[in-house]
Each structure stands twice: as C-alpha cells, then as structure tokens.
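Figure 6 in text form: structure in, sequence out.
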C-alpha cells in the first residue's frame, strides 16, 4: 500500500460522554502502530443528550483528523453508520462503536487482513461479556436468521468491520429506511473474511440498544432478508384449517353414531373462536409489518438530517 493510503473510522455516538476520551486515546495508540497510513476519524453525533457533542467539538479543534457529523435529532445507530459512510474518503472504512466493547486494537488486525486482499473484514465475537439473557437471545436469533435469511449473514458479528472503498461505494447506493447494515454488506458479496476477538464489557454509560430497540433491530434483520414469516403464517393457516376440518368430521361422526356423547355447551366454541381470532391477528400483524416497511420506502424521506459538521464536507 502507498504511504498516502487513507483509513476512515466511522464512529457513531449516542450519549457516550464517559467513553469518548478513553476510546480516542486507545484508538490513537492503536493507529500509531501503522505509520504508513493516514487516518481520519468521523464521529457521528446521533442526537446525544449528554455532553458528547461538547467533547467531540474539543477533539475536532485539537486534532484535524477528527470530524464531527451532528444530527438534528436521534435517527438511530444504522442511520449514523450510513452518514459516516456517506462522508468517508478512505481507501478503506472501519465501522466501530466507542463504548470500548470493541477494542480499537482489533481494528488494526482488520486493516492488516484487508491489505492481504480482502474487500470486507468483519470482527467475529469469540466471547462476549454480556448477561445470560442477552447471550441466549443473541444465539437463538442468529441461528434463526441463518436458517431463514436469503443470504449468508455470519453469526456472532455486529457492525464492527472494515470495508474497502469499492464496497463502501456500493453500500451508498442502498437508501432503504429500515437498515440492517451487516445484512447489506453480506448481500453485496465481494471477498469477505472474519477475524475473531473477545468482546469486552461496556466501559461506562447505558447501552443505546435497550430491549425494545434490540427487538426492532432483530425484526429489521429478518424482514429485510427473508420472507419466511409469511411462509410460516401460510403454513400455520393450513394446519389450523386442517385441524378444524378433522374436528368437524369427528363431531359429525359422533353425532351420527353416538349422539349421547355430545356434551351441550359453549366453552369449546368460544375457545375455538378466540384461538382462530388470535391466529388471524398474528397473521395480519406479520403482513402489516411488510406493508408498513413498503409504506416507509414509498414516502422517500431522508435517512438522516445533518444539523452541522466540523472539519468535514460531504463528497
């Protein structure tokens, strides 16, 4: 690689005042090991309500390699990554969070693997310091996604990865609202490989992905790359219809050959109505999710809105 090669770091920020300084210090220490490269650090302030923007502003004034993209409000983690990719100039782009769960030193391993000829190098979690519930739910989710998705999305991976500028150029063409970045990168193809690492515990502050957001993000992953939910409700409808038909035959035979065994009452009928009503509502909900996503895309609203920037102009 030429000495002038540029590596861009895309760093989403949401209420990370307790982590930014520590992270940037560790990132500086890590990147200093590669003096043959130039670096730019693009922080995207995703509507933080703490002092994150003040800290980022100070960093940008002290270090011209630091640029800040300040959103008009919180648009979400995937939108922040999208903005960073839109503004990045590098020959390769590294995406990572700043809560110290993903060690900056691992990004150097991604860069070294990239220069051997790979277009995408994703960081794959060998272990993670999370709660038992989060580990279990993540394992179940990735297993389900691997079985249902129309593309191969590597398990135990997040958005922490490196992408060559050719891949970034293709990613910029995707402007869908409900974004699942790791799925989009897998969809593109190119030459990809994983680098295993041990994920650390969060250094400070609260996660930007509470249970509600995690559930929505998981749903985005499934609905963006699979029609399996529609197939499931179709099969469920066929099963319920078959069972209902069999029950109807049994009741008819009993009425003909042994009517004394029929117990008058309404409990079974009411339970059947509620069961069928519940199944239908679930089916409508799944179909509504797909329709709602279509509606969002038709509206054509911007993925994010930038209020102002520091040390950066969009390409």
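Output sequence:
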């Amino acid at each position: 690689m030429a000495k002038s090669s540029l590596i861009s770091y895309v760093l989403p920020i949401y209420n990370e005042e307790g982590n930014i300084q520590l992270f940037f210090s560790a990132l500086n220490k890590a990147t200093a090991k590669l003096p043959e490269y130039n670096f730019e650090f693009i922080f995207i302030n995703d509507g933080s309500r703490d002092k994150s923007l003040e800290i980022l502003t100070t960093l940008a004034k002290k270090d011209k390699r630091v640029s800040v993209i300040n959103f008009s409000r919180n648009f979400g983690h995937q939108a922040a990554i999208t903005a960073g990719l839109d503004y990045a100039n590098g020959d390769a782009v590294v995406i990572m969070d700043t809560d110290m769960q993903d060690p900056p030193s691992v990004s150097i391993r991604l860069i070294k693997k990239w220069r051997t000829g790979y277009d995408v190098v994703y960081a794959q979690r060998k272990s993670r310091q999370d709660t038992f519930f989060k580990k279990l739910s993540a394992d179940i989710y990735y297993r389900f996604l691997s079985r249902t998705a129309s593309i191969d999305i590597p398990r135990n991976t997040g958005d922490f990865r490196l992408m060559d500028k050719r891949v970034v150029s293709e990613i910029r063409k995707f402007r869908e609202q409900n974004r699942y970045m790791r799925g989009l990168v897998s969809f593109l193809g190119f030459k990809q490989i994983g680098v295993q690492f041990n994920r650390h515990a969060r250094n400070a502050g609260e996660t930007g992905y509470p249970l509600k957001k995690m559930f929505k993000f998981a749903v985005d992953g499934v609905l963006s790359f699979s029609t399996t939910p529609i197939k499931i409700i179709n099969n469920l409808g066929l099963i319920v219809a078959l069972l209902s038909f069999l029950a109807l035959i049994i009741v008819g035979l009993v009425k003909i050959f042994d009517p004394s065994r029929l117990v008058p009452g309404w409990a079974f009928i009411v339970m059947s109505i509620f069961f069928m009503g519940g199944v239908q509502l679930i089916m409508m909900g799944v179909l509504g999710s797909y329709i709602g996503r279509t509606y969002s895309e038709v509206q054509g609203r911007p993925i994010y809105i930038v209020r102002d920037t520091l040390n950066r102009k969009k390409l």
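Caption detail: The chain has two domains: 6-226+303-310, 228-299.
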